[in-house]
Write a structure and sequence with these properties.
With 157 residues, the chain is of the alpha+beta class. 18% of the residues lie in helices and 24% in strands.
């Protein structure tokens, strides 16, 4: 365990054509799974690690083929940030059962080999299908209150 907060700079690989960078999460839910993971209670972890899922922020950058989001969009991200998108489960909209393994918002090894960093980091790299647009009329704080429970239950279904 760390005895004091640490600041670590990680540089992501270049974006794939379908990735979105959600920037500076304004609100992030705290889940007890974050605590279990940081403490290594569910097995060995790769550090440095930034936890946090069920996050709300804005789109900072998009890949060349992203069609669902634009820079500046208010968005929410749940517990998954990537999946193979080719297996039977992914093709049927059941990415949580991805045959190649879905990639979690933090402490996961993404397809490009990077370790995913969660909502308490400055940026999260996410495949566009796992980014949810939030209407401008909904404040960030209210979106997080709705996003966290809805995302938690929705991601489990």
């Amino acid at each position: 365990m760390f005895s004091r907060p640490r600041s670590v700079s990680l540089v992501p690989n270049p974006l794939s054509v379908r990735q979105v960078i959600a920037s500076r999460s304004v609100c992030t839910g705290v889940c007890h799974s974050d605590i279990h993971t940081v403490r290594g209670e569910w097995g060995p972890q790769a550090y440095p690690m930034t936890v946090g899922h069920e996050m709300v922020g804005t789109v900072a950058e998009i890949g060349a083929e992203v069609t669902k989001h634009e820079v500046g969009d208010k968005v929410g991200v749940g517990t998954m940030v990537n999946a193979c998108r080719r297996c039977e489960y992914c093709l049927n909209g059941q990415e949580q059962y991805c045959a190649d393994g879905n990639i979690q918002a933090y402490a996961g090894v993404d397809r490009d080999g990077t370790i995913t960093q969660g909502g308490y980091s400055t940026h999260a790299v996410v495949i566009e299908d796992f980014v949810l647009k939030i209407p401008d009329a909904i404040p960030f704080e209210a979106a997080e209150l709705v996003r966290a429970p809805a995302g938690w239950a929705g991601d489990a279904v």
